[in-house]
TrEMBL record:
<keyword id="KW-0479">Metal-binding</keyword>
<comment type="similarity">
    <text>Belongs to the DODA-type extradiol aromatic ring-opening dioxygenase family.</text>
</comment>
<keyword id="KW-0223">Dioxygenase</keyword>
<dbReference type="InterPro" id="IPR014436">
    <property type="entry name" value="Extradiol_dOase_DODA"/>
</dbReference>
<dbReference type="Pfam" id="PF02900">
    <property type="entry name" value="LigB"/>
</dbReference>
<dbReference type="InterPro" id="IPR004183">
    <property type="entry name" value="Xdiol_dOase_suB"/>
</dbReference>
<dbReference type="GO" id="GO:0008198">
    <property type="term" value="F:ferrous iron binding"/>
</dbReference>
<keyword id="KW-0862">Zinc</keyword>
<dbReference type="GO" id="GO:0008270">
    <property type="term" value="F:zinc ion binding"/>
</dbReference>
<dbReference type="GO" id="GO:0016702">
    <property type="term" value="F:oxidoreductase activity, acting on single donors with incorporation of molecular oxygen, incorporation of two atoms of oxygen"/>
</dbReference>
<protein>
    <submittedName>
        <fullName>4,5-DOPA dioxygenase extradiol</fullName>
    </submittedName>
</protein>
<feature type="domain" description="Extradiol ring-cleavage dioxygenase class III enzyme subunit B">
    <location>
        <begin position="24"/>
        <end position="234"/>
    </location>
</feature>
<keyword id="KW-0560">Oxidoreductase</keyword>
């Protein structure tokens, strides 16, 4: 069965970071080739659960401001995934209504890492919204999506292990990470290694470095979709990428 991933996707300039590109590219090379990719990104919160466009001609969502023009000219023309969209809808219970947004395709939480992992853009990609930021509900969403992995669908929760942008004194790529970022990252490392699901769910109260590491929690929340989609959310995942960029922890994990 293909694994589920939680990865730290970063801002558009992360594609200029040679280390991150090499790490993410090497990771993709050893993964089984997906039949399709389903992404839940920190940058799309919408209730009810909303399925994005399956049409390649729908423009990418450039959901960032103040960057050089060439970042707004990036394309990623992966095939649409209408069959996957239909399957996602059938996996939701009557209590979980499903909406469709034909005008919203992939945002940078999806296409930025995919341009590195699968640059040929030949694999169908679908993005769905996070209908909530509640960890338990996102775990349940991941559980409902888990059967897709049997069909070779790569489920990606795309966020960032720390994301305290308002509290960065030095936002340069090679900045020394602040204490709140290193403390939260060390805690996440330990909790992942221990398979401590309960503490991860309660990260807002239990993790050091809060609330600075996540003044808003949408960048840690995709983790719980990936955990729910795994065979055992209390497993110790493979921690594939660690380190920092702009002082933010880019720890990323693979779940079987």
């Amino acid at each position: 069965m293909i694994p589920a991933l939680y990865l730290s996707h970063g801002a558009p300039p992360l594609v200029d970071d040679a280390l991150w590109v090499s790490q993410l590219g090497a990771w993709a090379e050893v993964l089984p080739t997906p039949s399709a990719i389903l992404v839940v990104s920190a940058h799309w919160e919408a209730a009810p659960l909303t399925i994005g466009s399956t049409a390649t001609e729908t423009p990418l969502t450039y959901d960032f401001w103040g960057f050089p023009q060439h970042y707004y000219e990036v394309t990623y023309n992966s095939p649409g995934a209408p069959d996957l969209a239909a399957r996602v809808a059938t996996l939701m219970p009557d209590s979980e209504p499903v909406a469709h947004d034909p005008d919203r395709r992939l945002d940078h939480g999806a296409y930025v890492p995919l341009t590195v992992m699968y640059p040929d853009a030949t694999i169908p990609v679908l993005q769905i919204s996070m209908p909530t930021l509640d960890p338990q509900r996102l775990l349940h969403l991941g559980e409902r999506l888990r059967p897709l992995r049997d069909d070779g669908v790569l489920i990606i929760g795309s966020g960032f292990t720390t994301h305290g942008l308002p509290f960065l004194d030095d936002p340069s790529p090679g900045a020394v990470p602040p204490n709140w970022s290193t403390e939260f990252d060390a805690w996440a490392n330990e909790r992942f290694a221990a398979g401590d699901l309960d503490s991860l769910i309660d990260f807002r109260a239990k993790a050091p470095g809060m609330p600075y590491a996540h003044p808003t929690i949408e960048h840690f929340s995709p983790l719980f979709v990936a955990l729910g989609a795994s065979s055992d959310p209390q497993q110790s995942p493979q921690q594939v990428i660690d380190g920092y960029w702009m002082g933010l922890a880019k720890r990323s994990i693979e779940l079987t």
